Amino acid sequence: MTATQWTAAALLQRYDEVRSHTERLAAPLSPEDQTVQSMPDVSPTKWHRAHVTWFFETFVLASNEAGFAPFQDQYWFLFNSYYEAVGPRYNRAERGVISRPGAHDVGLYRGNVDARMQDLIDGLDQGTIDKVAATIELGFHHEQQHQELLLMDIKHVLSLNPLRPVYGGAPAPLVDTDRMGWVEVEGGLVEIGHREGAGFSFDNELPLHQVYLEPFRLADRLITNGEWLEFMADGGYRRPELWLSDGWAQVKTNGWAAPFYWSDYDGVWFEHTLHGTFPVNPGLPVSHVSHYEADAYATWAGKRLPTEAEWEHAVRTDTGDAAEPHGNLADTETFHPRAAEPGNGRLRQVYGDCWEWTSSAYLPYPGFHPAAGAIGEYNGKFMSNQMVLRGGCALTPPGHARASYRNFFPPGARWALSGVRLADGGAPA
Amino acid sequence: MTATQWTAAALLQRYDEVRSHTERLAAPLSPEDQTVQSMPDVSPTKWHRAHVTWFFETFVLASNEAGFAPFQDQYWFLFNSYYEAVGPRYNRAERGVISRPGAHDVGLYRGNVDARMQDLIDGLDQGTIDKVAATIELGFHHEQQHQELLLMDIKHVLSLNPLRPVYGGAPAPLVDTDRMGWVEVEGGLVEIGHREGAGFSFDNELPLHQVYLEPFRLADRLITNGEWLEFMADGGYRRPELWLSDGWAQVKTNGWAAPFYWSDYDGVWFEHTLHGTFPVNPGLPVSHVSHYEADAYATWAGKRLPTEAEWEHAVRTDTGDAAEPHGNLADTETFHPRAAEPGNGRLRQVYGDCWEWTSSAYLPYPGFHPAAGAIGEYNGKFMSNQMVLRGGCALTPPGHARASYRNFFPPGARWALSGVRLADGGAPA
Amino acid sequence: MTATQWTAAALLQRYDEVRSHTERLAAPLSPEDQTVQSMPDVSPTKWHRAHVTWFFETFVLASNEAGFAPFQDQYWFLFNSYYEAVGPRYNRAERGVISRPGAHDVGLYRGNVDARMQDLIDGLDQGTIDKVAATIELGFHHEQQHQELLLMDIKHVLSLNPLRPVYGGAPAPLVDTDRMGWVEVEGGLVEIGHREGAGFSFDNELPLHQVYLEPFRLADRLITNGEWLEFMADGGYRRPELWLSDGWAQVKTNGWAAPFYWSDYDGVWFEHTLHGTFPVNPGLPVSHVSHYEADAYATWAGKRLPTEAEWEHAVRTDTGDAAEPHGNLADTETFHPRAAEPGNGRLRQVYGDCWEWTSSAYLPYPGFHPAAGAIGEYNGKFMSNQMVLRGGCALTPPGHARASYRNFFPPGARWALSGVRLADGGAPA
Amino acid sequence: MTATQWTAAALLQRYDEVRSHTERLAAPLSPEDQTVQSMPDVSPTKWHRAHVTWFFETFVLASNEAGFAPFQDQYWFLFNSYYEAVGPRYNRAERGVISRPGAHDVGLYRGNVDARMQDLIDGLDQGTIDKVAATIELGFHHEQQHQELLLMDIKHVLSLNPLRPVYGGAPAPLVDTDRMGWVEVEGGLVEIGHREGAGFSFDNELPLHQVYLEPFRLADRLITNGEWLEFMADGGYRRPELWLSDGWAQVKTNGWAAPFYWSDYDGVWFEHTLHGTFPVNPGLPVSHVSHYEADAYATWAGKRLPTEAEWEHAVRTDTGDAAEPHGNLADTETFHPRAAEPGNGRLRQVYGDCWEWTSSAYLPYPGFHPAAGAIGEYNGKFMSNQMVLRGGCALTPPGHARASYRNFFPPGARWALSGVRLADGGAPA
């Protein structure tokens, strides 16, 4: 959570950019679309729009605005997601039964908070900015996370509708891909985590610490749909010896036989995307697979998933510290991962296609301490039963990804835009 | 399902009345309100509006319209409720995840079917009318049932919203009620069921048949909130000996301690209604209690619930065959049951306040045969694990109730607008 | 619950007969067999043995024995089944986790209570006998009910064991059966219920009351396995139009495709019985079908199930009031229903083969009042969500069945030894 | 899985020791006790006895015995625990419904396999011994794991019995404990894992590899019941800020308010143990707490749990490589953890009291590869959603614990004999 040096003008401009991007993403969605919660993990669009607004109201305005009063008392309760310290929360699984405030009312809420935030920032002297900018900047990145979730969530909502609604964008042409290559990485005692002065990070990327790595190899691109079809053809979903025990239990209980959004129509695999339902495109990265599937694929391929430290070190070695060296994020042409460009001996598809499952459980770095107060509930308390994903995806907003970023989901989650990059080697001699 | 003698003009007029009443009921509800399914038993408002339209399209237009084509193929699937014979059905519990067609699209669907129905009826000769009128009339009564359900369902949706939204209407003044009296009814071999020539009925009200009754007494009004508070104060919800075994299990599992929509705020009982949340009004009929609660109350009071035959016979004896003798149905001033008028030795609150639980399981009358084809799925297949309710309620549309009408819900259901009338006597000498 | 006139000697003799029959039934079962609870509806054998003993201790000894003290305080709690008035109960679904007291300890408990009961009865004068005999006689019939349940329950326990253990008995030879005939029954106003002076009955068989019946026909024997195979071959388990809605839901949820204990091995249907697993014998009555299946079969056959009043009236008309006119109960040669004897114009297989599903919900007779106190919980509180079965079965102990006996199970229950007898006619003219 | 050098005589002697220890542990348990499965995680005693026998039959006899035939075909299916490669498995959660084979039959099975194993080993030349000894030795350690589980499982079974049965042993006197001290450990690049030549290990302890550690401190003893009572008194189970999110969800869902086997009788905390139910002894280590509780306690105390690498390195530094330096395992006097001896600047209670939760997820070591074939399913496939525990406990058999041993349970598990040791420091400068 180290903050950049901000001025009021820069804060105002960034505030406007981030906030208006959310509204652009919600614009194609009807009030009815914005109301639905299709499963407990999914939140309604209008809830996302309101919750990120609540964040600014609660963590910035409440403690900095003169004569603060909440826009609406009840919103305090409705749009708290998981901050136990702020007070009682509305049950996550029941967000979809709340028809009011409607999409338009949420727009009024956003407008009100935006005006108050702009007034607030406008009136701050630099000394106060230095104190509050970190929280405002956290609000930017928080809202960006929800921009990504908003798209993942509405993708699920629309997937259940027999009318096959389209969110937006157009499909990529049918493509194939060149052979996967490997990037060799030297091991040793390496530094992992966010570096001082390198811009924003979440608290879970800290502290910077040392990890010992054996030499290893990292695949230079993501696994494709075409490769995944080979795994399926070879009985990938029917062979228990390939799977973690909990993963195999899910295969059997849920009848997994293909990635999350694939459906078989008369022997042809189709994929639901935000731009519609189309035959599976073999050259695109496989997406919406769980950690269990990624791990089983790696076992089948005689390889493994990388640890998060391997991933981070390889990316830094390959690209330097630049935040988004391959930064083709937030593809608004397809809202979907893209085919890899031709191989050039370096890592491809690092940030803008699929979040990449690692073999690392989401645990605190040595010496990690969450921030004090409610803000401290941001990350640390989720460090249980989740696996780390690295990189970014086609729905990640510009400026949001970086080498030290730690995303996380439970190993059975499939509605996130997740994919697979293999690793190899790393055994001690 | 005996039909009245219809002319095209009369059918058209009635069609227009029934259809426009549905839209009037939906008018106060936003697109978001119309989308929510708050529990599996509840359907979204826009689903109700579309499903009753689907009924006319499927059972009238499909077999009578020249060059019939459905308005939208997928609607065929989405808005079928339980007619297995018509094809696969969309899972009831997942109606709330379908954001499209939206409320406006459903309006277009309704307009299209209305125009086609009007064209169809306009062009029919009397001979054809005589053949199709029964199905169209069934469609009227079907839509009326859903008008009532639409209100019961949205009442539940709004009840979960911490903003306490109001559907419409205003509260009644605080009232008290005179003492409950008894109407004595002679027994003997009596006729039960719908009589030839008495207008429309559903198939489950047939055949007319004989039942032997011992003499008994029926309460002249419904049990009030005030009387229910006495039951509660006397440990009604804590004494297993008052309860059916399945009912007691629900008390314990669900923590029942008061009627469905009552909440205790700082020691005062409030009730959620369609006109808002107000302190419990002691003189109004108690409502939204399950069969189990009604039965436990009767046991506590040293009385019992009437059988459906007793109820029907008592009402006929008291009021003659007039369909709605006390017909203060569909109260659009409060959308809520009203206080009983002063006693006059006859039955009060028969039709327009609360559906009344009986002690009769919902079973076929002797010689009952469902109609052939999909229409035959209307009633008969639900004759299991449900209890009969008689009368009508404050949400029942005008012209919909009658003495032989058999409503039914599972004994644990509480979201229906149900109340309690006691019986006594009836034991053989 | 009307009692016979008893003497001490007769009571002692009957006590010994009933109690030792239970032990004979448990004798083939190991301590391990007697411990298992294979599903919540099933109770362990040693629990049955202890619970019927607890009944005598609680309802007879506690109020009549001088210086009464329970054999073991904790047993008071462990072996109460559903008598809320007696105190807290041990959770029914967890009877299978109680390893102690073991089977041998339960034997000691039985011996202790037997000795005390014998002492008690021995010392009673006739006046006291006249007061307590009704409760002791209720204890006999209560224990007989559990004898039947003990066998139904252990049948289920053993059915889950891949070793295919045998309880006892030998299979009947392969048989076929003559054509089903019909017995015509005149209707009218008839008396239903237990008659004064006709020996013991449970409270739910009272009061004697009048019911009006249209003329009808009752099948002269039960439906056979062979006939059931025709139903299956004609898609009986795949055609929703044959089923009650709740029944069809169970077909789909539970994958019902044959009676409960049937399994398909390489295209041949086998049936698990207490005497082992054998190919389905076409001439024997079909058994272990739910009410839903019985109802669907009747619909498929163009017939219906009888009401309980029709069944009782037909049996009385056919056989007079004799308790067990066809009394081939408790078949210890096969522990299984037997083939019908050749038709002779009268009802066959009335008592000793399968309990017969009726179309009547289990509800109180007009004027029914449960007994006061804990004993009053015997029957009345179960009058919800259950269907009545009439007759008796091959596991019913001798002397336990009669024309007015009302057995009851939920409509989806299949582990009881239930079968199907059809009715026809009965429609009002 | 590195094997020691074995001779036939040594193998035979060890075989006899391990096998007869299992029977000694089962001896106090009745056939009924041995049959019960009190929850899905628990296995019946007779299942443990049979399953460890099945292991020798399947993995040793089947491939080495001339003319091999299984003792009983069906046992092949019934006593396979999780080896998918061996064939279909019997559903874990239903082990408690299998009454046969009974406890005595399982004894016969054990006797048969023992005789065949002894014959086999007797007849082997040294070359063959060198090949099969590794699998036989794995069987010894497998059986020892089940000896520990057998006791943990029967502890749970007996805990549900209102008769409060005792397994064996006597309580320790009431004790208090001296203040917890800290052992300082230097960090650096350290070796973790099982060392070549140091006797047996499971595959999950390999490969030996390097880990970088910052300097840290490890508590010199376990947290006591007395200290846990302070945590409870300070609202430990009521303060969400102390808990991981998944842990807090379990607190609320399951109503956790104290360790697993504690019950409050009239304001005094009692603890269920294998030697009976007694008031909580403040000086004994707290036991049967989940990872979530251990983590919340550490947060409350301003400390943290150690990583598994920290634990292993600290123990090696403190004690050298000796397998069981503090080896007071398998306490048959109390079957319960004991009070710490007075502090002496070194680590106390390392092996014989409670398994110690670490902050490490159970994941493969760098370069880990499971063995080929069914044996390869031993450990690797469970590396998901579990946390590592280190040390050993009062139920661990002698010779079974070592510094590199990795035990694992899901973070919510409480029926294992688990406790808490704190760590501190370790942050990078």
From TrEMBL, chains A, B, C, D:
Residues in domain DinB-like? Answer: 15-148
Q: Which gene encodes it?
A: egtB
Keywords associated with the record? Iron, Oxidoreductase
Among InterPro entries, the record links this protein to:
CTDL_fold, DinB-like, EgtB, Sulfatase_Mod_Factor_Kinase, SUMF_dom, SUMF_sf
Would you tell me the protein name for this molecule? Ergothioneine biosynthesis protein EgtB
Spell out the PANTHER family in the cross-references: HERCYNINE OXYGENASE (PTHR23150:SF36), SULFATASE MODIFYING FACTOR 1, 2 (PTHR23150)
Q: Which residues form the Sulfatase-modifying factor enzyme-like domain?
A: 181-423
Q: In which pathway does it act?
A: Amino-acid biosynthesis; ergothioneine biosynthesis
